DNA sequence: TGCGGCGATACCGTGCGGGTATGGAAAGAC
DNA sequence: GTCTTTCCATACCCGCACGGTATCGCCGCA
């Protein structure tokens, strides 16, 4: 069985994405002829036609589309491998946890305390990021992340549910819905909703928002409204009001980490988080 | 960022598994010096020590252990990529479904019929295999598999539940438990249970069993007993008896396929299977 | 102190990955 | 129709990196 090399996959994805040998070569900072030959050789070794060369356009074959998708997973795995290896060799081991600012459901302090009490606990480094936080896990840049389900893509990750939350509509005090005791999603017709960086802008084409302070500021300025998990209630400014949304699907705060992870530090962290979450839901409701 | 090459990962896994450069080189069908240099270069490029060379033994460092695990996933992904690409280019497209003989819960004929009625259905090729059936999915050798949950490792696979089944103890008619109307797991103390190839022989160190006929034969010969999903009831020989096991965790027949799969033929098959399963549980209970 | 095992080093050849120059086919422009 | 442009393939060349052989150096051991 012929072996597939990373270099070939990099070349192929470039061509498959550009559908143009010249541009792909430029992107790869090389010239076009060796690129053409590399792709030909790849096709010969696989015994498969990957591209249809029309004299004026290049198109993917069925098999080429499959290889494009597969290549991405291989390349992602390869760069994650490099990053995780490097991180494992650091002199100051630490657990990198990526969160959305304000998106911890109020559980984080208790979780961190519980974790530090575990034997062999590492210092925890918090990384704040909006949108695409799971990417950091897949890329091997972080050990764990706090996400909200339903979430676009949790495949390849293991998860632990922490907290089920209802959702609140956040509006300025002067907003037409501010006085309501409850609203439903239909009431939001015509409102501008924020667009998270990286999220496929499904319908809501409001401005991109990069952190919670910015978002609340924009809401106060009447530029938009937002539907957020109920735990942000503590962090609202005085000039904003939160109203329960009846028919918004409830959201679950989950702790996620790359599957196959074996680090005992991570395992301890997951244990700690699960314990804290169990207490919270068991006692407090 | 330096790129990690497949060749290097192959070399490294060989050394990491053998913990011996000479043997690793032999396994790779090359000589020892270039292998040593390749590993050194890998370490230099990563900036990480992967191996501790004692003059008489080689050991993995912490980072080396991480890279070994990561390498396996990269290499698996790479060979799966090659196989899936080749399969996608076949002139006679077909859907490869891997099953455990007798493990289809009786649903398979209906599923196949429903699938063939879907638009764009492909011929279905059935592959029978005991143990490690999910490996065939990960390797890109099959499109879908029928498995039973709880299952050792479903990560990296998407699944669709098909049928919840209670478990039955299968024994010869002359067995001491054959007359019971129900048993519990404690009753099985001292009995020999089959060991599936590939499964970590957890406690039960009986003989390895490779197909259902063989298993039933061995049970009839009083060499072992087995706990199996209730749908095998139809396939029992006259000289065997099935007794419900009260406290065995119920098992779920699931259809599994590689995550990120995009083939419309597979999607149609999943739809068909889900429809049949819905009917079965909806009407029949 | 000689021996054997094993990884590292020195040195060498060749094949492959990359470059430049050019060919050749197809799609407009007129 | 033919001239031009565009873009992929081919021809040919070069340097290096990969793999091989020979050997060293270190250490455990008898």
UniProtKB/TrEMBL annotation, chains A, B:
GO terms for cellular component: protein-DNA complex. Residues 4-61 form the HTH lysR-type domain. Gene3D superfamilies: Periplasmic binding protein-like II (3.40.190.10), Winged helix-like DNA-binding domain superfamily/Winged helix DNA-binding domain (1.10.10.10). One of its GO terms (molecular function) is DNA-binding transcription factor activity. PROSITE patterns: HTH_LYSR. Pfam families: HTH_1, LysR_substrate. Belongs to the LysR transcriptional regulatory family. This is LysR family transcriptional regulator.
């Amino acid at each position: 069985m012929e072996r597939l090399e990373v270099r070939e996959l990099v070349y192929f994805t470039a061509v498959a994405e550009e559908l143009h040998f010249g541009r792909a070569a430029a992107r790869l900072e090389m010239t076009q002829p060796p690129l053409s030959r590399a792709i030909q050789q790849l096709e010969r070794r696989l015994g498969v036609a990957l591209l249809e060369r029309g004299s004026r356009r290049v198109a993917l074959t069925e098999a080429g589309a499959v290889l494009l998708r597969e290549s991405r997973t291989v390349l992602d795995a390869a760069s994650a491998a490099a990053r995780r290896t490097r991180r494992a060799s650091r002199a100051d081991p630490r657990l990198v946890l990526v969160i959305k600012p304000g998106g911890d459901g109020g559980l984080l302090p208790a979780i961190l305390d519980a974790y530090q009490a575990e034997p062999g606990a590492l210092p925890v480094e918090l990384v704040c990021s909006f949108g695409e936080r799971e990417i950091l896990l897949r890329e091997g840049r972080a050990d764990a992340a706090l996400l909200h389900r339903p979430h676009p893509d949790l495949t390849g990750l293991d998860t632990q549910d922490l907290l089920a939350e209802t959702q609140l509509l956040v509006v300025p005090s002067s907003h037409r819905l501010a006085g309501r005791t409850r609203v439903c999603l239909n009431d939001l017709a015509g409102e501008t909703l924020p667009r998270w960086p990286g999220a496929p802008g499904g319908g809501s084409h409001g401005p991109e928002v990069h952190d919670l302070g910015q978002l609340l500021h924009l809401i106060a300025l009447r530029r938009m409204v937002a539907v957020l998990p109920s735990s942000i209630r503590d962090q609202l400014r005085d000039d904003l009001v939160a109203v329960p949304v009846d028919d918004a699907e409830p959201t679950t705060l989950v702790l996620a980490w790359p599957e196959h992870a074996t680090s005992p530090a991570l395992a301890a962290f997951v244990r700690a988080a699960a314990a804290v979450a169990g207490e919270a839901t068991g006692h407090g409701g």
